[in-house]
Write a structure and sequence with these properties.
Elements: E1 2-6, H1 13-24, E2 27-30, H2 31-41, H3 44-55, H4 61-73, E3 81-84, H5 90-102, E4 109-114, H6 117-125, E5 127-130, E6 136-138, E7 158-159, H7 166-180, H8 184-188, E8 193-197, H9 202-214
Parallel strand pairs: 1-3, 1-4, 2-3, 4-8
Antiparallel strand pairs: 5-6, 5-7
The protein binds BIS(adenosine)-5'-pentaphosphate, magnesium ion and zinc ion.
Length: 215
């Protein structure tokens, strides 16, 4: 099963993808995470992407589509993919079709997480992750069970993203509205879009996604 989680910054794509990984052994393919790893490693892609990401703009289509192809090639046959933050433009949507069909795969669901823009800044500005295992948290909405200790791996180190500030978030939202939301009709025409209320609490969103996947 291959699915896309679509929604603006802070909609909960990463949060829900992590849960699908745990529940179903699927693989999360987050182009944002891949790009941040490239920045950290100082690769050519990372050097090119860093300033663009810090501004909240989109990295070029060819770079992210190449990253997705590489990740899919590294996956076990039969393992489902969760596309998190990809595709983000019409050109990326077209590339994804080609990338999937070349590998004998196809999309089962596009799940749109609907959220009020006002909530997003609060969500994003309160977000942090475990520096060791990447588990996501929030100052208010998803705190570690023991303060200062990761639930999943026990690490005491956490980090925040450099693009999680109000100015950059506004640019990221504008990019979503202008370039990403317009790809929904492509998938609507195929009858594979399900809309989930992303304003519900985290567990309720997970339950709604499970309903979609069960069909
Ligand atoms: P990316 O990393 O994809 O960031 P994004 O799309 O802006 O999305 P976020 O990761 O901010 O939000 P999310 O939906 O994952 O929310 P989360 O689950 O963390 O991209 C970053 C940058 O990389 C882009 O700006 C661009 O430059 C570049 N890039 C990446 N992909 C690209 C592509 N394909 N093409 C071009 N450029 C690309 O949730 C947020 C917080 O809210 C968390 O703290 C969470 O605990 C909390 N939360 C989640 N759900 C709920 C809920 N239901 N109720 C309350 N709190 C909640
Ligand atoms: Mg994310
Ligand atoms: Zn951890």
């Amino acid at each position: 099963m291959d699915i896309i989680l679509l929604g603006p910054p802070g909609a909960g794509k990463g949060t829900q993808a992590q849960r699908l990984v745990e529940a179903h052994g699927m693989r999360q393919l987050s182009t944002g995470d891949m790009l941040r790893a490239a920045v950290k490693a100082g690769t050519a892609v990372g050097l090119q992407a860093k300033a663009v990401m810090d501004r909240g703009e989109l990295v070029c289509d060819a770079i992210v589509s190449a990253l997705i192809g590489e990740e899919l090639d590294a996956m076990a046959a039969g393992q489902g993919a969760i596309f998190d933050g990809y595709p983000r433009t019409a050109a990326q949507a077209e590339s994804l079709d080609a990338i999937l069909s070349a590998r004998g795969r196809s999309l089962n669901h596009v799940i749109e997480l609907g959220v009020d823009e006002d909530a997003l800044v609060e969500r994003i500005c309160g977000r942090f992750t475990c520096a060791n295992c990447g588990k996501g948290y929030h100052d208010k909405f998803e705190q570690p069970k023991v303060a200062g200790t990761c639930d999943k791996c026990g690490s005491h180190e956490f980090k925040r993203r450099p693009d999680d500030n109000e100015d950059t978030v506004r640019t990221r939202m504008a990019e979503y509205r202008a370039k990403t939301a317009p790809i929904l009709p492509i998938y609507d025409a195929r009858g594979i879009v399900s809309r989930v209320d992303g304003m519900a609490d985290i567990d309720a969103v997970t339950a709604a996604i499970e309903q979609v996947i069960k069909g």
